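Attaching the record inline, Q. Sequence:
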Amino acid sequence: MKIMLCYDSSREAGEALGLAKKHARAFDAEKVYVVTSMVGGRDVPREVFANAERELRYAENVLKEENIVCETRLLVRGLTPGEDIVEFAKEKEVDEIIIGVSKKSKVEKLLMGSTAQYVILKAACPVVATK
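Structure, as predicted:
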């Protein structure tokens, strides 16, 4: 089984990390992909990328302490985060995606959309959402 964990610095992502550990052990996962997606571009300060890489290393260390095989990826491919996650999961033939969800106002949903909602609706594999 291959698991994909959508990870950032949010509290919800921390909950998702805990669940990914449990699922990796329970289902004897072959690998856990820890993924962060960023739109990127010239206007994004370098420290934003450095922070994302630091967060990925943290999640990697947490999983490796449990002897869970994992691989981290910072995706900057010009897609929205939702599109990036769904596409990467398809490319790697992931069996399960774990993603944290947070409550957003109607205005936030209208302006920014919901990455988790997109992933839940478009992914070819089961998606587990944590809050």
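The chain has one domain: 2-130. The longest strand covers residues 31-37.

More tomorrow.
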